[in-house]
Amino acid sequence: MMRPPDSVAPTVLTYNTVINACARATEVPWDTLIGLFGQMRHDLVTRNTLLAACGSRGLGDEADMVFRTMNAAGVLPDIVTHAYLVETFGKLRRLSRVSDLLREMEEEGNAPELACYNVLMEAHARIGLP
Hints:
- By secondary structure, this protein is mainly alpha-helical.
- Helices cover 68% and strands 0% of the residues.
């Protein structure tokens, strides 16, 4: 009979799943999510998972911090990265930040998905701007 291993090393998928689950549990503090993040390899998927957590919690400053550290580490953002940022700042009604992100995406050659523009239009409609 085979004996199971004493421990199994976590993978990137393991950490992403844990971060995602903790992000959904609003009673888990942001510092705990950052602590988990600090224990793992920081790839694009992991950073996008953390950005999704920022969006679901309405944490704009934290999203900016994750994005800045991502760029400083040389991890190139993708369309998913920008979509999470656009969604976060759209929810927070920081429309100038959304516009800046869309412009940045276009300049980098990452054509924003239609959903990103919809976020901007919906945010303008919610607060009554043209």
